[in-house]
Amino acid sequence: MSIRHRIGLMVPSTNTTCEGDYQLVAPKSMTVHGQRLWLTNDSMGEEGMERMNTDIESGARYLSTARVDAIVYACTTGSFFKGAGWDRDMLDLIERTAKVPAIGTSPAVVEALRFMGARKISVATPYPDWSNRRLRTYLETAGFTVLNVEGEPVAVGAGQQGINDQDPESVVRFASQACRPEADLLFCSCTAWRSLEVVEDLERITGRPVVTSNQSTIWASFRKLGLTGPIEGYGSLLRRMDH
Question: What is 125-140 written as a DSSP string?
């Protein structure tokens, strides 16, 4: 019997994008097992993130019963909005509870940006202003020069579930315009935004490497499990999986 790698994936309950993105790139030797964290469509503020994160410990406990090899906390805002340091505390909580390695989206993004050699970055998001401000602070604390953080107004107005329903082509139009000429790299934030599907288009249009939340999370979790080898069609980061 062949052995499968099992990843436990914690996502906001409104998120219908992240699991699909994993399915796009996961090898046949991997299965992905979801655990939803409560979030409502209109929870675009800090209170919604706080409530959602009260489910982290129980979510880790549930996933541990599936004997997953690693647990991924797949929410960008949920892992950066309380600032540097809390992200590590959150991963420690998951690891203590489930007794397996944990990966978080925001720490994975930082790791991926450093791996790609980025110093000056442009950022495109579907976030409201408060979240964009927190994201800028988080990335600057990690040592990056953040040239700009642009929030897509259509996505912001659509609520949490509406972010998932946005046409990826509209992500291309908005995010490509957010990339400044002096940027080393463009970062597209949010695990519910369908930017992974169009990352190749974004790299072609901007002439820059593009890192997305789900792409970084996938990259970090595969590396954690020792899965290497280039993945084609989803940006330069995943093409460099064997480095």
Answer: ES--HHHHHHHHHHHH
51-68 as b/e: b if 16+ CB within 10 A: ebbebbeebbebbbeeeb
pLDDT of residue 173: 96
Q: Where are the alpha helices (DSSP H) in 142-235?
A: 153-157, 159-165, 168-178, 199-206, 213-224
pLDDT score, position 80:
97
Q: Taking the mean position of all CA atoms in its chain, how far away is CA 12?
A: 12
Q: Which of 238, 239, 174 is closest to 206 using CA atoms?
A: 174
Spatial CA neighbour of 70 closest among 143, 138, 151, 8: 8
Name the pTM for this structure.
0.95
What is the pLDDT at residue 1?
Answer: 44
Distance in Å from the first CA to the final CA of the chain: 30
| Contact present, 60 and 117 (Cβ < 8 Å) | no
* pLDDT score for 159: 74
Positive or negative torsion for Cα 8, 9, 14, 20 = negative
